[in-house]
């Protein structure tokens, strides 16, 4: 059980790290730090960096939370700590 | 029908709807709405959370500020949505497993100390009251326009109505009322946006319209807007920064972690049935929030374009913006300007005596724009438009039908009231339950506790209303300060409570107090002691934004760093938390064994 809970926590933190990297890249990366570079690319009438800051990052945030909820469910089951 | 009558009717009908649902839901069953939310579907719960979360700052103020700030305004969009990712992954499931009803209760138990809980109450009150000030600013805008009175009168009336609403109280926490509020609010926000997007760009979806071309031309909306505002001396819309890129970065961090530290948001996730539901409900909440948040930047850019188009006829024709006949003749101004002049939030002053309205940036650093303005005989900007009126005025500026304008008034009132009432309840429960009942006077009667709660509500409203008369900034800016306070004080303590088994009470308390103190010190230096005008001491810290150009609204992220650092050091030199607390932290990390929340009241 002890090894199990250590493994569970490790798997959880691994997933969180992966998601936080994407979270950081789309908002702080594409939306702020690399905005001037990305703005040279246009999608429709949007400069790309501006699009990430005002639209894209929000859509990706939503996808990240649902991905997280799904993956955590799988991890819960794998380590047998789920609620059902 | 006349606009004023129609507005009363629509606002009145929306109130009747909320009250009707409250009565209907009450007749069914009461308790399950408050506690585990037994039969409430995660999607329904997500809608209710979204209504709770989106306040006057989101609805009334945010798009106006984005219109002013352009690209820099993205910090509100990313900050107030990105925080949900942190909330969903780092806090919500674990706090749900912990099974307490309020943040001070969590802090008190995890840090095995009533003093820690008291410190958390102080942080919570500071953040919530600042938040309410921002709400009152928004309430003032909504009511002054809705009733056609001055902004001050609007705030007084708003105070009275918020009080009645909060004391009537039961409405809050009833999921279906909030769902109704969400529907009114989101309809009021998106319908005018769709109309305006269709008018300007031919796109039904504002999210696409913002990136679209202006009807009948090849120029995209954003390109044309950039040209106009630069020509008039403003910063380029799609690239303007709030001070600096660093400030934008730090500001966004502050709003994100503040979202995850604000008690009235966190509470929503204590009441879902299971840990796994806590994860999904944050996702659904964000879906419903995103409908408004992805529309807002379109509203901002289009409102700004329409405003310029109204006061300068050359905007639409592509002619010379500086030609004398391009500026709108004051006597021929549209009715909406006259209506907003009554509130005092829109003002005109004829500086060059030509009877026309010149709206431009007279403090521009752009020499070309300044030269053109001078050549045209412009003697300074003549139109002052309070950023907070942009959303409410938006359908009027675009000359949309009266029922749309009335609907927006109803939406603004709903947004301001629901969040203000929710915050007041959080304040009253923190004072009456977490402070008086748990610490000061444990033997207080239930009646006495209730009375203390009501009194603290009155106190909070009067204080917030008074400060709302001379607000420390626009509604969204003031709310951002509240986020900074939550970010610097509560967020680190909650985080460390979950993710560090060894963090002890001394560390947590020292961290919270120093984070709060540093942030308040920097904020008060700019905005006055306790936000009272005239008590600023900005020279003492070496001038405005002296800390690497960071604005006070963004300083919460720095405060949080101080909090973490102090907590770490103090924790190292004091003794470890007891064994059972370390086990408690381990059990919080695992979903199995979650039970219904206790300590509800």
Automatic annotation (TrEMBL), chain A:
This protein is called DUF4212 domain-containing protein
Q: Where does the record place the Sodium symporter small subunit domain?
A: 7-82
Has UniProt tagged this entry with the keyword Membrane? yes
Q: What's a Pfam family this protein contains? A: DUF4212
Q: Which organism is it from?
A: Thauera phenolivorans
Which terms are listed as keywords in the entry?
Membrane, Transmembrane, Transmembrane helix
| Residues spanning the membrane | 20-38, 50-69
